[in-house]
Amino acid sequence: MSAWYEGNGGKMNKITIHDYHIKHLEFIQNAINRMSKNSFQIKGWMLMIMSALLALYANTGKNTYIIMLVIPVILFWSLDAYYLQQERKFRGLYNDVVATTSFEKNAIECFDMSIERYHSEEYSYFRVFFSKTLIGLYGTTVFCLFLMAMCNIK
Questions:
Q1: How many Å apart are CA 42 and CA 52, to the nearest integer?
Q2: Where does the pLDDT of residue 86 fall: very low under 50, low under 70, confident under 90, or very high at 90 and above?
Q3: Confidence class for position 130, pLDDT limits 50, 70, 90
Q4: b/e per residue, 139-151, with b = 16+ CB within 10 A?
Q5: CB count, 10 Å around CB of 46?
Q6: What SS3 class is residue 110?
Q7: Which of 50, 86, 113, 135 is the most buried (most CB within 10 A)?
């Protein structure tokens, strides 16, 4: 397969994209999909456990169930942040493989799946943990649970 790209001085250069480059990108994309699927499943598990404990709370009226619920929500939040961090690192690898396959000699070895080189702030666990999407779901959930517990103190 061939592709064209604009090199230095506006000159169009033809490169050949080998099947093994495409296969390498497919492997990385599969890893990204697995991380995304794991993240989605974690959210489902959290909602299932939350529903069960809130049903127990509705039957008994004990604040213990609400307070007990905060712990698994924070644990699921941490696990979800880990998978999202891994997904971002694989996206970084994917982008680097695309860049090196398209414009220069292959700086990343073919079929290299190592994400150890991605340590910048963009891939930080705490940046992911406090990202807008995770704060929106888990932060709001924890906040609402605390409000429910505070409103029901007798």
A1: 15
A2: very high
A3: very high
A4: eebbeebeebbee
A5: 21
A6: coil
A7: 86
Which residue's entry shows tokens 């644990």? 75
Whether this prediction's pTM lies above 0.85 is answered by: no
How far apart CA 2 and CA 48 sit, in angstroms, is: 49
In the structure encoding, which two tokens stand for residue 90, read together? 């694989």
Tokens 């079929």, residue located = 111
Per the structure block, which two tokens stand in for 21?
């480059």
Helices (H), the chain: 19-60, 64-103, 125-129, 132-134, 140-151
Residue pair 145/97 in contact (Cβ under 8 Å)? The answer is no
Q: Residue 106's pLDDT is what?
A: 44
**What are the phi and psi torsion angles at 149 (to 5°)?**
-65, -40
What separation, in Å, do the N-terminal and C-terminal C-alpha atoms of the chain show? 72
Q: What is the Cα–Cα distance from 5 to 14, expressed in whole angstroms?
A: 7
